[in-house]
Design a protein that fits this description.
53% of the residues lie in helices and 13% in strands. The chain is an alpha/beta fold and 274 residues long. The radius of gyration is 21 Å and the shape is globular. Pfam families: BcrAD_BadFG.
Length: 274
C-alpha cells in the first residue's frame, strides 16, 4: 500500500499544483475488504487534505456511461461487473468477485476460453477453425502441446496477459470461426445474467437503460449483438455510453459541491462540446 499512497500523492500534486478541488478516487476492489478499506482511509490525509470521495471503479463507469442517470452500467474488460443506481439513489452490483471463480464473460474469461477452444480444435473435439492456425502462427508452435509450456511460463500468473488472448479469439471470429463466434454468444449470456441480477435487486422496470464500458466491447457486434438480444428478455434497453469513466469521476466529484446541480450541468455541457 505504501507505493499506492506515494503514487496517488504525487499524481494529485502534479495535477492540481496546490489548487482547491474536490476529488473522486475510483479504486478496483473498493468495498470488498473492510480491513483493506479501513487501512486506506486511515492514510488518506497522506495523499491530500482536500475533500475526497472514494468509490469502486464500477461506479465511475456508471456515472460516465449514463451521466449520473438511473440505470445500469456493465463493465467487461479484464474482469466483469455490473453496477446500477435507481431514481431513489439505491445502488447494487453483481459479478466481479474474483477471476478464479467469477468475472464471467470478461476478456480474462474469454482468454481462458480461447485456450480451451484451441485444445478442442486441435483434438477434433470442436470443428477446426481459424483459431487453430492463429495460435500456431502467433506462438510459433512446432507442436500444439507446446502451448502448455508457453502458458505456464508466460501467462499462468498474469491476469492481464491472459485477458489479452481474447484478441486472438476475436481475430478468429472475424475470419469466420463459428466456434469462436459461439464463445462471444456464451459470454453475452453470462453478461446478461450479471445485468439481470442488478435489474432485479433495484426493482427496475421496462425500458431501463443499460450502458457499457471496457475493452471487450471493442469486439463490436460479436458481443453487442447477442448481448442486445439477451437483454430484451429483461425489458431493458442497451445504449452507447455518454461519457468515459474518467469523466464519470468528474461528475461524482461535482456531487460534493454546494449547489451541485449547476456544477454537474456545466461539466456535462463541457463534455458535450468536445
Amino acid at each position: 500500500m505504501d507505493n499506492s499512497i506515494a503514487l496517488l500523492k504525487e499524481t494529485v500534486h502534479e495535477i492540481l499544483n496546490d489548487r482547491e478541488a474536490y476529488i473522486c478516487l475510483a479504486l478496483p476492489n473498493w468495498g470488498e475488504s473492510k480491513d483493506g478499506d479501513g487501512e486506506f482511509l486511515s492514510r488518506i490525509k497522506e495523499i491530500t487534505e482536500l475533500p475526497v470521495k472514494i468509490v469502486n471503479d464500477s461506479v465511475v463507469g456508471w456515472a460516465g456511461s449514463l451521466g449520473l442517470s438511473s440505470g445500469i452500467n456493465l463493465v467487461a474488460g479484464t474482469g466483469s461487473i455490473a453496477y446500477g443506481r435507481n431514481d431513489a439513489g439505491e445502488e447494487a452490483r453483481a459479478g466481479g468477485w474474483d477471476e478464479r471463480f467469477s468475472d464471467e464473460g470478461s476478456c480474462y474469461w474469454l482468454g481462458m476460453k480461447s485456450l480451451e477452444l484451441f485444445s478442442k480444435e486441435s483434438d477434433g473435439r470442436a470443428e477446426k477453425g481459424a483459431l487453430l492456425e492463429i495460435f500456431r502462427n502467433r506462438f510459433e508452435l512446432k507442436c500444439d502441446f507446446d502451448i502448455i509450456d508457453i502458458f505456464n511460463r508466460r501467462y499462468r500468473n498474469d491476469r492481464t496477459k491472459i485477458a489479452g488472448l481474447q484478441k486472438y479469439l476475436l481475430e478468429a471470429a472475424q475470419k469466420g470461426d463459428l466456434e469462436a463466434v459461439k464463445m462471444y454468444e456464451i459470454a453475452a449470456d453470462e453478461l446478461a445474467m450479471i445485468v439481470g441480477s442488478v435489474y432485479r435487486k433495484l426493482k427496475f422496470g421496462e425500458g431501463t437503460l443499460v450502458s457499457y464500458s471496457g475493452g471487450l466491447f471493442h469486439a463490436g457486434e460479436f458481443i453487442l449483438g447477442p448481448l442486445r438480444e439477451q437483454l430484451k428478455t429483461e425489458g431493458v434497453r442497451l445504449c452507447a455510453p455518454k461519457y468515459t469513466p474518467v469523466e464519470g469521476a468528474s461528475l461524482l466529484a461535482a456531487e460534493m459541491f454546494d449547489g451541485e446541480k449547476q456544477y454537474i450541468e456545466a461539466i456535462r455541457r463541457g463534455f458535450d462540446i468536445k
